[in-house]
Amino acid sequence: MILFPAIDLKDGECVRLKLGEMSEATVYNQDPAAQAKAFEEQGFEWLHVVDLNGAFAGTSVNGAAVEAILKATQNPVQLGGGIRSLQQIEAWLEKGLARVILGTVAVSDPALVRDACKKFPGKIAVGIDARGGKVAVEGWAETSDLTAVELAKRFEGAGVAAIIYTDIDRDGVLTGINWEATIALADAVSIPVIASGGLASMADIERMTQPDAAKLEGAISGRALYDGRIDPKEALAMLRKARI
Q1: Torsion of CA 65, 67, 68, 70, to 10 degrees
Q2: Cα angle 172, 176, 180; round to 5
Q3: Cβ atoms within 10 A of the Cβ of 10, count?
Q4: Alpha-carbon torsion angle 89, 91, 97, 101, nearest 10
Q5: Options 51, 129, 167, 204, the catalytic residue
Q6: Is 228 exposed, middle or buried (0-12, 13-18, 19+ CB in 10 A)?
Q7: How many CB atoms lie within 10 A of CB 118?
Q8: Cα–Cα distance between 222 and 26 in angstroms, integer?
């Protein structure tokens, strides 16, 4: 069970959004690379990075900040936001990314996801962001008719390393992860699922250690870490103990 600290990039800064709204951004660190290093020093084993501008633009926008993060930390990094071609995927993996997250293209071009999984085994994750149970795309600006489970099932057997499932209605508002929907998704597919959106307190960390959550690969935490609602040392110790 991995706790992934999140660095969301907007205009080169480390921010958190509220309900996915770019106008509702709180800046937590103007130096994302320093934040990445701090997370590593706190004992985290992975880093989750999102290029928010890129998600809207459809191409990488905060590339310089991501490259600085990769230089600053030894931890594996997964990146999403605006990556929509095999060329972009290959370029990022060559720069040292451990995993590329594909979101919008998973809906618009599922064949690209399958091709990427074949070409870069173990390196491709699918980001499924849902609002009211329906998948949202284009930086959450548009909602499709697909449900999260329907989209996830399209990639069974394709070699997807993980599905990152975000409940947009809970993102950045500290109301707790939607465990029911997240675990239901994990039950529906064999692909490992990472919970995202709303992780609020040590109670959510405790929830991660319960038997029905054991099938999850982990969960992503953003605002709760930055606001001090989650103590990194205590949270990581709790999850380590649950692994034994």
Answers
A1: 130
A2: 125
A3: 21
A4: -20
A5: 129
A6: exposed
A7: 11
A8: 11
Percent helix, strand and coil across the chain, each rounded to 5?
A: 40, 30, 35
DSSP string, 27-91: EEES-HHHHHHHHHHTT-S-EEEEEHHHHHHTS-S-HHHHHHHHHH--S-EEEESS--SHHHHHH
Tens-level pLDDT at each residue, the chain (244 residues): 899 999 999 999 999 887 677 888 889 999 999 999 999 999 999 999 999 999 888 888 999 999 999 999 999 999 999 999 999 999 999 999 999 999 889 999 999 999 999 999 999 999 998 888 889 876 566 777 889 999 999 999 999 999 999 988 776 566 788 999 999 999 999 999 999 988 989 999 999 999 999 899 999 999 899 999 999 999 999 999 887 6
Q: Are strands 77-80 and 21-29 parallel, antiparallel or unpaired?
A: unpaired
Catalytic position from the list 8, 51, 167, 171: 8
Residue 109 annotated in active site = no
HSE at residue 218, side-chain half, CA atoms within 13 A, is: 21
pTM above 0.90, yes or no: yes
Tell me if 44 sits within 8 A of 74, measured CB to CB: no
115 is an active site residue? no
Contact 86, 115 (CB under 8 A): yes
Please say whether the beta carbons of 39 and 11 come within 8 A. no
